[in-house]
Design goal:
three-stranded mixed beta sheet, 293 residues, alpha/beta, Rossmann fold, 41% helix
Length: 293
């Protein structure tokens, strides 16, 4: 299958690219910079130059592919306004790709986060939130999934709050970077809230499985660890960096603070049973043990 990927050189996308190529697919990667283009080509992918805002480029990439995996998202999290701009850009990009694929029967695999449900682990049957600081992403993903009724085999892989590899990535990686800058391994609130996690290489396998076999209109959970207490995550970070571990208010964590304090475990039981996905790589807490002091 010829696969067009946005975000092909990020932590997750680079793993997806290798996974697809290893399985015999070909990959065309969207690359905004010379460095990203060189990285994609070194992995064995072809390159189309552009970014998420270049809608004509996205349409051309989708038109020439047998399937699309969308992973790209803006990396400016400096403010609520910046986050909203990222969400708006992604929404327009998904719409452009989806409209190009109408009536083709081709797969479109997009990405969202696992939802949170008070008092229990969320499942694949739970809807993503329609309200809150990142609800706009859920709205655009749901619009993409609705294309299943218009001849697009659209599915969504829901990623947990931390997708990790080599001791970095996701919300846990954010805590590590904050710890290095502040000299303290901080966690939001009382730290009992749980974050689900998955290794990037395991997540990559699920994206391939969704591309190859997921029915249209379905959502899947790339969750290996159902939920680690945030203070346990911070404890490993603090020990590896030789720093004290302390609680801090949600506001200290910027625009994502409101998300960080939510207890949000997630299950992947249906994903494992129906798509045959089996995570095999290190857990988050084990992976954090590789952080360099």
């Amino acid at each position: 299958m010829r696969v067009f990927i946005t975000g092909a050189t990020g932590l997750i996308g680079s793993a997806v690219t290798v996974e697809l190529l290893s399985a015999g697919h070909s990959v065309t990667a969207l690359a905004r910079s010379d460095a990203s283009a060189a990285k994609a080509e070194a992995a064995g992918a072809e390159v189309i130059r552009g970014g998420l805002a270049d809608l004509d480029v996205l349409r051309a990439g989708a038109e020439g592919a047998d399937g699309v995996i969308h992973l790209a998202f803006g990396n400016d999290f400096s403010s609520s306004e910046a986050l909203e701009r990222n969400i708006a850009e992604e929404s327009a990009a998904l719409d452009a790709i989806g409209q190009t694929l109408l009536g083709t029967g081709r797969p479109l695999v997009t990405v969202s986060g696992t939802p949170f449900v008070p008092g229990r682990a969320s499942t694949e049957a739970d809807p993503v939130p329609a309200e809150g600081p990142v609800a706009g992403r859920g709205v655009s993903v749901n619009r993409a999934l609705a294309l299943a009724g218009r001849g697009v085999r659209a599915s969504a892989v829901r990623l947990p709050r931390t997708v990790h590899r080599d001791g970095d990535g996701g919300f846990a990686g954010f805590l590590t970077r904050m710890a290095r800058q502040a000299g303290v391994a901080a966690y939001p609130g009382d730290g009992t809230q749980r974050w689900p996690a998955v290794h990037a290489l395991d997540a990559a396998v699920l994206f391939r499985l969704a591309l190859e076999r997921a029915p249209g209109g379905t959502a899947w959970h790339a969750v290996a660890d159902e939920g680690d207490a945030v203070r346990d995550i911070a404890a490993v970070i603090g020990r590896r960096l030789g720093l004290p571990v302390e609680s801090r208010p949600a506001e200290a964590f910027g625009p994502l603070g409101a998300v960080f304090v939510v207890d949000q475990p997630a299950s992947s039981a249906r994903t494992r049973a129906e798509l045959g996905w089996t995570p095999t790589h290190p857990s988050l807490l084990d992976d954090l043990e590789t952080i360099e002091p």
